[in-house]
Design goal:
globular
Length: about 160
């Protein structure tokens, strides 16, 4: 179900096809509303790639947790009006997104592209380091360590 008005700037949202998924993108600020499951679909069907400099810039911005000002980022879900939960995508990507667990995800301008770049980088690393990370994953199952968001993400790739 589409939204008509941007959750940030109140500008008009238009339908836009991204990686084969019809999304709602603000024509003013570039923000994106993705209905439940659309982010996962976009990530799984990736066709386009990002420049190495964009990937590098995205990875440099990565850090764990939430910035203090993120806690005051109160925007309502366009479907149920509950306040969207603020999270750091994959815990330590540095891409701070707003989610409604029941209805979808709000991404500010360039956050969708940054998530794609982040995922693409780590999928490429998984291919290069599959054996090494597989051994680490098996070792952590035998001897529990403090799992980080990154370790959990890497386990999901196997």
């Amino acid at each position: 179900m589409s939204i008509q008005t941007c959750l940030r700037c109140k500008g008009p949202c238009i339908h836009h096809t991204h990686e084969g998924v019809i999304i709602d993108r603000c024509s003013s600020c570039g923000g994106v509303w993705l209905d439940q499951g659309e982010l996962e679909s976009i990530i799984e069907t990736r066709v386009n790639t990002h420049s190495p400099s964009f990937v590098s810039e995205t990875l440099k911005q990565g850090k764990a947790g939430l910035p203090a000002d993120a806690q005051t980022d109160l925007i309502p879900c366009p479907k149920c009006t509950a306040t969207l939960k603020v999270i750091n995508y994959a815990y330590d990507s540095g891409v701070i997104i707003n989610i409604c667990p029941s209805h979808g995800v709000w991404l500010d301008s360039k956050e969708l592209e940054r998530i794609e770049a982040y995922r693409d980088h780590w999928k490429n690393e998984a291919v290069k380091r599959r054996a090494e990370w597989g051994a680490l994953s098996s070792a952590s199952a035998v001897e529990p360590a403090s799992d980080s968001g990154l370790l959990n993400f890497l386990k999901s790739l196997f």
